[in-house]
Write a structure and sequence with these properties.
The chain is of the alpha+beta class. Helix content is about 25%, strand content about 30%. It has 2 domains: about 120 residues, Lipocalin; about 280 residues, Beta-lactamase, CATH 3.40.710.10.
Length: about 500
């Protein structure tokens, strides 16, 4: 009996202690939200989750910028009275004042290299990205898909309608039913154009026709087109020139004993540098992450030593650092950074007016910093499909399109199925017993641009899946192959 009484007294004491903790500080637990213009023209959600561990009485949490596919733990949390200080990592910090009713937290967000910003956080019931795939006019989740032909706009796209046999196919209808039921959470856009007409345009979750979206490493393929335009203008003449010749100001950073890779080696990712990017981007040993955290992107890549096992040109090895250097080559050749050159040439010819291109340390991030509207990226795919033409005008030379999208090096052990060109990927789709060549651009988190000449078709998917490494939430190659391309 005494033993039971002691257990009861301990339970009461613990309950009282927990209730005391719940009084003030526990009111701060949960998800807090604001919006930031993280890149020009894109206001994205900034969510912070605060958790209070009991009985350790320690704060922890994480933050998320869904549109940027950024999620990370909060490194440090200090809360005293009505003052809060959060260490967000990488030197970023939030210092705020908690309102007396615990309804808002107002303070200053400091991010290195950016102007301090005053923000106000308010509580929300769930993460901003945890919304239904699509909301109907009655503000309720839509559960049934009905095909609607794309609307004509002034952006240059000709629009058409899908044949009833396509829209009524069990494969396509089944795919969209699964999307609305939440199977492919994180899908923002799925667009298809065939025979030069936009025929399928679907948006979900955080996507929208007029919202720019991160294209991640699809940026690399777009920059390849810019390099082609520079070559078309004779501003770049010799692809076999040493890569280091475009960076004379970094002569002290380049290892003199290393075999110097050429511009062509950089284009084909076969420069044979001592580089590690085949591990998760959450791993601090990943060279792409270390490059992005460095004070000078170009210097970081140029200072890398040679791969002890390979020689330039022998083997494909994924290397975002080479794509960054290609941005430096472009700037050296044309006298303008990639974003300015793109605005004045490629984007102007395609009628692309709304975009953003991030930079780090004053250098345009040509490895993954581009943001485009879905219909505008699809234009780029259509132009490549049409051998460099858009709306009857030759934007990029046919010769560069053919050369840059050719299968030059195999990827891994895929044999003849998958390969790489000049920052463009090559693969195959197996549809209805036929093997169809595919030119494609691929970006982290599920950004895909497909070009299938045999079907006269281009398609794209946009996602915001920061932690999607298994394909469980993204529309995979196989799903696209079986549920979309097989019915066109």
């Amino acid at each position: 009996m005494t033993h039971l009484k002691l257990r009861y007294n301990f339970f009461v004491y613990a309950l009282l202690l927990l209730m005391a903790c719940n009084s003030d500080e526990q009111q701060l637990t949960g998800i807090w939200h604001t919006e930031l213009e993280t890149v020009p023209g894109l206001r994205s959600a900034f969510d912070i989750e605060l958790r209070r561990n009991w009985p350790e009485e320690k704060w922890n949490g994480r933050f998320e910028l869904a549109e940027l596919m950024v999620t990370a733990p909060i490194e440090s949390i200090k809360i005293k009275d009505l003052k809060m200080e959060l260490g967000l990592g990488g030197g970023a910090k939030f210092t705020g004042d908690i309102s007396t009713d615990r309804a808002t937290i107002k303070g200053i967000l400091n991010v290195p290299g950016q102007k301090p910003e005053t923000i106000t956080l308010t509580r929300i019931p769930r993460w901003s990205a945890q919304v239904p795939a699509r909301i109907g006019p009655d503000k309720q989740p839509l559960k049934t898909w009905k095909y609607e032909a794309p609307s004509p706009t002034t952006d240059g796209w000709k629009v058409g309608k899908l044949r009833p046999a396509v829209t009524d196919s069990k494969e396509l209808k089944g795919l969209f039913q699964q999307i609305l039921q939440g199977k492919f959470h994180g899908l923002d856009a799925l667009l298809v154009a065939q025979n030069g007409q936009l025929v399928l345009e679907e948006y979900f979750y955080l996507g929208g026709r007029d919202r720019i979206h991160s294209v991640q490493s699809v940026t690399k393929s777009v920059n390849s087109l810019l390099l082609g335009m520079a070559r078309d203008r004779a501003l770049i003449q010799n692809l076999d020139a040493p890569l280091k010749s475009y960076f004379p100001e970094y002569a002290d950073s380049i290892r003199s004993k290393a075999v110097s890779p050429s511009l062509r080696h950089a284009l084909t990712m076969s420069a044979a540098l001592d580089w590690t990017e085949d591990i998760p981007y959450s791993d601090p040993k990943n060279d792409a992450v270390r490059m992005n955290n460095s004070s000078d992107l170009y210097q970081y890549v140029l200072s890398k030593g040679p791969d002890p096992k390979d020689k330039p040109g022998e083997r494909f090895e994924y290397n975002s650092g080479l794509s960054i250097l290609l941005g430096g080559v472009l700037k050296n050749a044309v006298g303008k950074p990639a974003d300015v050159f793109a605005r004045e040439t490629l984007f102007k010819e395609l009628g692309i007016k709304q975009f953003a291109w991030t930079n780090m340390g004053g250098k345009v991030h040509t490895g993954g910093g581009l943001f485009l509207r879905p219909r505008d990226l699809l234009k780029i795919g259509q132009m490549v499909l049409d051998s460099g033409k858009w709306d009857g005008s030759q934007v990029v030379s046919q010769s560069w399109i053919k050369e840059s999208t050719a299968f030059i090096l195999p990827v891994g052990k895929s044999g003849g199925d998958f390969g790489y060109g000049y920052q463009w990927w090559r693969g195959v789709m197996r549809v209805k017993g036929a093997t169809l060549p595919v030119i494609y651009a691929s970006g982290y988190g599920g950004q895909m641009l497909y070009i299938i000449p045999d079907l006269d078709l281009v398609a794209l998917t946009f996602h915001h899946n920061a932690s999607d490494t298994t394909g469980s939430h993204s529309i995979t190659w196989k799903v696209i192959e079986e549920a979309v391309f097989a019915v066109f």
